[in-house]
Amino acid sequence: MKFSVYNTMSRKKEEIVPLKEGEIKLYTCGLTVYNYAHIGNLRTYIFEDALKKSMEYVGFKVKHVMNITDVGHLESDSDTGEDKMSKGAMREKKTVWEIARFYEEAFLKDFQLLNIVRPTVVCRATEHIQDMIKFIQILEEKGYTYIANGNVYFSIEKYPDYTKLANLSIDELEAGSRVEVDPFKKNPLDFVLWFTNSKFTNQIMQWESPWGKGFPGWHIECSAMSTKYLGERIDIHCGGVDHIPVHHTNEIAQSESALGHKWVNYWMHGEFLVMNNEKMSKSTGDFLTVSRLVEQGYSPLDYRYFCLQSRYRKQLVFSFESLTEAQKSLKKLKSRIKNIAEGHQIDETLDKGKLQVYRDKFIAQISDDLNIPNAFTVLSEVIKAKELNNTEKLYLIKDFDKVFSLNLAEEEALNENSNIDEQHIESLILERNKARAEKNWARADEIRNMLLESNIELVDTKEGTTWKVK
Ligand code: AMP
Ligand code: ZN
């Protein structure tokens, strides 16, 4: 199982060597749930979903953890500006708790609509306050923190590798960090681990802590929760490129200081979705959501397809014209697949060797730093291939769709339910009987599994083999 990815830390493409053979521990930063996810955020989650499914396709077992930020994220990533959750609550005249749960649900609904599989663990910051407090206590015991104006800060001077992920100098990082400087910070790049004395006196989300009643800073949640669910070392950590200079830089500083060793082996960052040459941003209030796209006549999967047409490390320019092009192209693709589904012959069988040739081509693309656009080229080759019969084509289309997740053979599934091709099933049962008589168990199993994929279950009885719809 070879799988290469571009590692932001080394700035090179590297072949993944998992911490435990055959397994990948993946952590992805979740949404700050003070508003709907915009389609830019969702581009990043689609990239992470395709990454996870590609690694599963080549045979890795992936444990995926994603946090939900429902406390502690101020408007600027470096502890200045308004509190995002309180801002959402004021905007809608609701409590921060109501805002958090409402937008978390909306976010996970978007996952469903976009065929993004739910991570193995989805964990809320507010439910892990004690884990964060313990993490901060370790940092305090090791001498990485100081208290000023009632807040607990991480001192970056104590962690000499601070600039390694962003690959910028301290001066450059400072120049990039935002305006309003907190006068209590010893270094402008220090960051808050725990607020007790915040400017938001009406902050509702507060917890007791050794430093007084308050709430956590934003970055600490990812370190605490990833360590809790994935252990002290993880294989891959992802997010959007905006997280490189502040959020992920701070996550690394506090995690490696507390743990005393390297924390993440591969850092992967998705580039931004941009519109009219600007990054899509929630702070302006003018942003596009999945439901806005649906209102305009697009399906969520049109958007997924649009995103998958470009490499994750390239900026993607959004326009309704290009989304319309993607919609047309997906429609065309599905109609070609429908023809294939309708056109198969009763006596068609699967040639495993031929299938593997195409599977290998597909794997070569997805495992090359997630070259999904080229994986679509392999799909086109399959559709056009003269040497493949329709049954083989359909098998491969469904197989590749484990990664694309575009319901490519959906039409065909509908047909199957209403119009089951009994003759075809009977011919496959005969073929399976023959394979079993010849002790060709691999082929026999293959036929059983192939039918199972079409929701047909074989039942072996003394009288012979029958079938039923699952
Ligand atoms: P946030 O809720 O701000 O933490 O963002 C959630 C995720 O969306 C993070 O991984 C961000 O890096 C990512 N993100 C934010 N804006 C964009 C954008 N315009 N395009 C792609 N990803 C984005
Ligand atoms: Zn994070």
Automatic annotation (TrEMBL):
<dbReference type="InterPro" id="IPR032678">
    <property type="entry name" value="tRNA-synt_1_cat_dom"/>
</dbReference>
<feature type="binding site">
    <location>
        <position position="29"/>
    </location>
    <ligand>
        <name>Zn(2+)</name>
    </ligand>
</feature>
<keyword id="KW-0479">Metal-binding</keyword>
<keyword id="KW-0547">Nucleotide-binding</keyword>
<dbReference type="Pfam" id="PF01406">
    <property type="entry name" value="tRNA-synt_1e"/>
</dbReference>
<protein>
    <recommendedName>
        <fullName>Cysteine--tRNA ligase</fullName>
        <ecNumber>6.1.1.16</ecNumber>
    </recommendedName>
</protein>
<comment type="similarity">
    <text>Belongs to the class-I aminoacyl-tRNA synthetase family.</text>
</comment>
<feature type="binding site">
    <location>
        <position position="282"/>
    </location>
    <ligand>
        <name>ATP</name>
    </ligand>
</feature>
<feature type="short sequence motif" description="'HIGH' region">
    <location>
        <begin position="31"/>
        <end position="41"/>
    </location>
</feature>
<feature type="domain" description="tRNA synthetases class I catalytic">
    <location>
        <begin position="16"/>
        <end position="327"/>
    </location>
</feature>
<feature type="binding site">
    <location>
        <position position="251"/>
    </location>
    <ligand>
        <name>Zn(2+)</name>
    </ligand>
</feature>
<keyword id="KW-0030">Aminoacyl-tRNA synthetase</keyword>
<dbReference type="InterPro" id="IPR024909">
    <property type="entry name" value="Cys-tRNA/MSH_ligase"/>
</dbReference>
<feature type="binding site">
    <location>
        <position position="222"/>
    </location>
    <ligand>
        <name>Zn(2+)</name>
    </ligand>
</feature>
<comment type="subunit">
    <text>Monomer.</text>
</comment>
<keyword id="KW-0436">Ligase</keyword>
<keyword id="KW-0963">Cytoplasm</keyword>
<keyword id="KW-0862">Zinc</keyword>
<feature type="binding site">
    <location>
        <position position="247"/>
    </location>
    <ligand>
        <name>Zn(2+)</name>
    </ligand>
</feature>
<dbReference type="GO" id="GO:0016874">
    <property type="term" value="F:ligase activity"/>
</dbReference>
<keyword id="KW-0067">ATP-binding</keyword>
<dbReference type="InterPro" id="IPR015803">
    <property type="entry name" value="Cys-tRNA-ligase"/>
</dbReference>
<dbReference type="InterPro" id="IPR009080">
    <property type="entry name" value="tRNAsynth_Ia_anticodon-bd"/>
</dbReference>
<feature type="short sequence motif" description="'KMSKS' region">
    <location>
        <begin position="279"/>
        <end position="283"/>
    </location>
</feature>
<keyword id="KW-0648">Protein biosynthesis</keyword>
<dbReference type="InterPro" id="IPR014729">
    <property type="entry name" value="Rossmann-like_a/b/a_fold"/>
</dbReference>
